[in-house]
Automatic annotation (TrEMBL):
Adenine glycosylase active on G-A mispairs. MutY also corrects error-prone DNA synthesis past GO lesions which are due to the oxidatively damaged form of guanine: 7,8-dihydro-8-oxoguanine (8-oxo-dGTP). CDD domains: ENDO3c, NUDIX_DNA_Glycosylase_C-MutY. The keyword Acetylation does not apply. This is Adenine DNA glycosylase. GO terms for molecular function: purine-specific mismatch base pair DNA N-glycosylase activity. Residues 35-186 form the HhH-GPD domain. PANTHER family: ADENINE DNA GLYCOSYLASE (PTHR42944). Belongs to the Nth/MutY family. The lineage of its organism: Bacteria, Pseudomonadati, Bacteroidota, Flavobacteriia, Flavobacteriales. Binds 1 [4Fe-4S] cluster. InterPro entries: A/G_AdeGlyc_MutY (IPR005760), DNA_glycosylase (IPR011257), HhH-GPD_domain (IPR003265), HhH_base_excis_C (IPR023170), HhH_motif (IPR000445), MIG/MutY (IPR044298), MutY_C (IPR029119), NUDIX_hydrolase-like_dom_sf (IPR015797). It comes from the Bacteria. Its cofactor is [4Fe-4S] cluster. The gene is mutY. The keyword Hydrolase applies.
Length: 349
């Protein structure tokens, strides 16, 4: 098909030189795909290189501690990706003798691997004719063919998958899959694409009908909730600090944070009493406190916005569960916490 040939030819000229494009090793391809979920190439590349350097084989990754993996992942967000990565690495290393499943049907059974990732690994590593459909592919197909079916609807997911499957080059599926994704990332960009130099401009429905800024269509997301977080940076007389592991399900599971208390609103410096600390570890302890940031630090996640305050609490006694301040950076923490640690001058305490 003309579409397929033009996109593939464009790719042969404009593709970026990326390390995972120089291998068919399923471990490296899988690693790159997991890192690049919800992450741009520019941000993900240093993480990929760090993981390949520290864990050159799937056995190395499988034998690593979750603590070490989360620390290396720190800053990428969506930490369930890292936990699933570790789980799947252990399964392949210990249950499958380090041998990756070589087809889409078996790959999609692995934890953390969905349709897109299974298709990418199957086609790139094993040359299986399995069409990938990611955000870039949705955008290219919706615009070129003028499809207004919502890409995040059940009908839309099936429609675009079927269309991508009909277009894939059966002789070189790996090349086509990478070509259409690269085309979406570099040429058919989400905003302000340069359609004047596009090889598909003569037959693109969106361009002809002035729908480039309209397509693809996406159903509205669920309402984003707002939460008010108060982190207690508790420092004792020995200059040790409380740093606890989040064990409950949800965001940041198995990462570390300062003791957290949620409030119903953003608190001011003179409203510390609203944290109601009498039933916490601070009960009966003498302490002084100060509000570090009078303006909320807003941390935006896909489903919630966290309005955050950090309270510096100096306790006039030693704390049993506290750790040395100098060891803080050894623990995997959300970027919100990590940024505070790197900004706050603990040396002046």
């Amino acid at each position: 098909m003309d579409f397929t040939n033009k996109v593939t030819n464009w790719y042969s000229i404009h593709k970026r030189e990326l390390p995972w494009r120089k291998t068919t090793n399923p471990y490296y391809i899988w690693l790159s795909e997991i890192i690049l979920q919800q992450t741009q190439v520019k941000q993900g590349l240093p993480y990929y290189e760090a993981f390949v350097t520290q864990y050159p084989t799937i056995f190395d990754l499988a034998n690593a501690s979750e603590h070490a993996i989360l620390k290396l992942w720190q800053g990428l967000g969506y930490y369930s990706r890292a936990r699933n990565l570790h789980t799947t690495a252990k399964h392949i290393a210990f249950n499958l003798n380090g041998i990756f499943p070589d087809n889409y049907k078996e790959l999609i059974k692995l934890k953390g691997i969905g349709d897109y990732t299974a298709s990418a690994i199957a086609s790139i590593a094993f040359n299986e004719v399995a069409a990938v459909v990611d955000g870039n592919v949705y955008r290219v197909l919706a615009r070129y063919f003028g499809i207004d079916t919502p890409i995040n609807s059940t009908i839309g997911i099936k429609e675009f998958k079927a269309l991508a499957s009909s277009l894939i080059d059966k002789e070189q599926p790996a090349t086509f899959n990478q070509a259409i994704m690269e085309f979406g990332a570099q040429q058919c960009k989400p905003k302000n694409p340069d359609c004047t130099i596009c090889p598909l401009k003569d037959s693109c429905v969106a361009l002809q009908k002035n729908l480039v800024d309209v397509l693809p269509v996406k159903l509205k997301k669920t309402k984003v909730s707002t939460k008010y977080f108060n982190f207690l940076v508790c420092i004792d007389t020995n200059k040790n600090i409380l740093f606890e592991k989040r064990t409950e399900k949800g965001i940041w599971r198995n990462l570390y944070q300062f003791p957290l208390i949620e409030s119903e609103k953003s608190l001011k410096a003179d409203e510390f009493y609203l944290l109601n600390l009498k039933d916490t570890f601070l009960n009966n302890l003498e302490f002084d406190y100060a509000l570090y940031n009078t303006t909320d630090k807003v941390h935006k996640l896909s489903h919630q916005h966290l309005h955050t305050k950090f309270w510096i609490v100096e306790i006039n006694a030693p704390l049993k569960e506290a750790i040395p301040i100098k060891s803080l950076n050894k623990y995997p923490a959300p970027v919100l916490i990590s940024d505070f640690i790197n900004t706050f001058n603990f040396k002046n305490l």
